[in-house]
Amino acid sequence: MEYTITQQGILWTKEKWDKLLTKSPTDEIEVNYLDDFVIAAFAITSMLVYGRRLKELDNPNTDAAWVSKSLLVIGIRAMAQLLPAFI
User: Fold this and answer.
1) For each of the chain's 87 residues, which pLDDT tens digit applies?
2) Residue 31 is part of which domain span?
3) pTM above the 0.70 mark?
């Protein structure tokens, strides 16, 4: 389990950022921590629960829009449970 967490999490993130750095002519890059860490978290969950690797990990230009939208839905569902207490 620890190997999977390390491989799908920090090693994938480090590899992605290293690739971006090598492609950058100025050795400067801009990274979105939230997107990369959320993708890593979803990848770890996918691997541990379903035994499948996310295809987004193979694409260095991964757009985490679907991940952000998923988190928004999860957050709204969590808050909606509190709503009846205020009505």
Assistant:
1) 888 888 888 888 898 889 889 988 998 888 888 778 888 888 888 888 888 877 766 765 666 677 778 888 888 888 888 777 676
2) 2-86
3) no
